[in-house]
Model the fold of this input.
Amino acid sequence: MQPQKLRIAYFLFLMIFLLQRQRALLFQQLYHFIITEEEFRLRRRNRQLLLKILAQIKQQNVQRRRRAWVWPRPQNWFKNLLASPALDFLWKEHFRVTRETFEFLCDLVRVKLQKQQTRFRVPVSVEERVGLALWRLATGNSYRSCGLQFGLGKSTAKIICGEFEQAIFDLKDRFIKFPLTSEENGEKMEEFEELYGIPQIVGAIDGCHIEINAPPQNHEDYFNRKQHYSVNLQAIVDANLKFIHATVGYPGSIHDARVLRLSGLYDCAENQQILSGPLRNISGTDVGPLLAGDSAYPLTNWLMKPFPDRGRLTPKQRKFNLKFSALRCVVERTFGMLKSRWRIILKTMEQKTITLKKTVIAACVLHNICIERGDLHDADDSDSDDSSDDDGEGRNETGNNIRDILKDYVWENL
Done:
């Protein structure tokens, strides 16, 4: 009886064990099914989401596609002006240059501005590019309005103006040349002496302010004494109203004498790298080449300025100041001509400092080209940013002696 109970108990235990094992297998299979189903569901959801994203991107690309290759902007007036010699009198009014100077500029930059013709469309001609760039320099209008005048879009006008200004800027060493040899200095001095009677003057130096918008960084440095933001344009001009040196970009709050030192001219002159000869004996003293500046500049053996007027000037000093100021006015007249011809400089320039430098120097180069070709432009008024503040460096003994010698020369000969 006892063994039979054991067999029954063993059989029951075996049955329970098998049932538990089968139950565990069923749970395991159920778990794997659930996991597999969840993974399939997630993959399907991710696929649907990816398809939706791709559809949105495709729709956005369709919306961003250019609706037209070129918008129609019929402006044929420039082509008519270019083709009709009878309308030559309009060139000076619209572009501040004569037709002959315009054609010279086109030939000058044709290599850099000429574009290759492709199967898509005919490129903008060099004449239209130069005309557009000159129009913007002459008027100071926005790229959008200048482009509309020539039937071009804003971005195209901006690119064309930038390329033209860069091409002219690259010619600065050819058209803005400071005299380095004694022969070149002698030519400049003869021109000044013939027109104004004062010997040994190579050029007149001065600075003017180019008004700008407040820069995003260090804007307080650009706020000048005239209560607006600007950069300095320092220039040296010869007797023919041509620039022989020009530097631009220093903040408007910097004094003219400081700009002179920062520009490198001061060190070059002090080290006799420039303005070293020829010498001329005047009243027993050898006088070298000189620059003519206003009271803001230091008095040195190569830079002259008028006697400070504190109400005690002698007749000789007053006469010297009068003659010297007449000579030095060439630089003010040049600034006036520059801003009157290229009115983009007269207005507030809404450009970054880097591109602003290129635009201003390009305008100076164009000014010299016009002067060389006899294409003159009457200035509305002389432009001067003279400061009445003396820089306190007028006690240079050599400079004082040379100024006294020139004072006596002017008194005796003029």
